[in-house]
Hints:
Elements: H1 3-6, E1 13-16, E2 23-31, E3 35-41, E4 46-50, E5 74-81, E6 83-84, E7 87-88, H2 90-97, H3 102-111, E8 115-124, H4 133-141, E9 149-151, E10 154-157, H5 159-169, E11 173-178, E12 188-196, E13 199-210, E14 216-222, E15 230-237, H6 241-248, E16 251-255, E17 258-261, E18 266-271, E19 273-274, E20 280-281, E21 284-289
Parallel strand pairs: 1-12, 8-9
Antiparallel strand pairs: 2-10, 2-11, 3-4, 3-5, 5-8, 6-7, 11-12, 13-14, 13-17, 13-18, 14-15, 16-17, 18-21, 19-20
Amino acid sequence: MNMWQNKNWGPMLLREIPKPFNSKDYLFEVKYDGYRSLIFVSPKEVIIKSRNLIDITYLYPELESLKKIVKNKAIFDGEIVAFVNGKPSFSKLQERTHLKNKTKIKEASLNNPITFMAFDILYEDKDLTKLPLMERKKYLAKYKDSDVFIKTKYIEEHGKDLYKMVKQENLEGIIAKLKTSPYLINTRCDYWLKIKNYKYETFYIIGYIEKEENYVITLILGDNTTNHPLVGKVNIAKKSPLYKKIKKEKIIKKENDNNFIKPKLKCEVKYIERTKSNNLRQPVFVKEIKD
């Protein structure tokens, strides 16, 4: 496959593990909270593809300047990030992503510019994906950082120390990468591992959504600190003991598929952060909380 001409392929994906580790065989990077993207760059053009193969070039006109940093054709893998006070802001990035008007997109590129955090290079007038990661890092190191293009830093061996720093700074997590790993396009594998910095909290179960054909039930979560307003939803298996308890509860209100119950049952949920509207990002059910 000609990677440059085809462009209809996705990035190498990560597996998630629960805890950080140390290893001389791995390098460790900060996991930036943004949009994973592949950028195809030549002196004549810039094409940006999302991890789902959608062309998002029009959203980020400031990345047109990447044409100046290359002499030949190159493909970079990385994360599109919006920084606020030196830290990634996913909500600020979403503001950019939801724009449709060309004039507003142009204004935002000047007033609210994003940064492409480059962590790999896959092509430089030839396919580099079969090279070990550390060799690809050498190719990447030749490209100079700019206002919108920054190469990610990494440390070797000491993943636990980096994770400790990430927790202190309240960042999204870390990524562990096998130094000898090739780059496997369209593949999720164990060469690259993500360890997220989850927050853990207890919430009331204020309702549920159930569809007969599904093996799971969706719990509607409420926040005890603000009189049980909706903060998010998570799934549990119908074979769970908690499911039987929920089904015994009387439905006090029904809105479309939402069955609301009295907020008596509780569960622990892990999540990345709360949004501006107090909703949980990436919530995952952990366990039932018994009084």
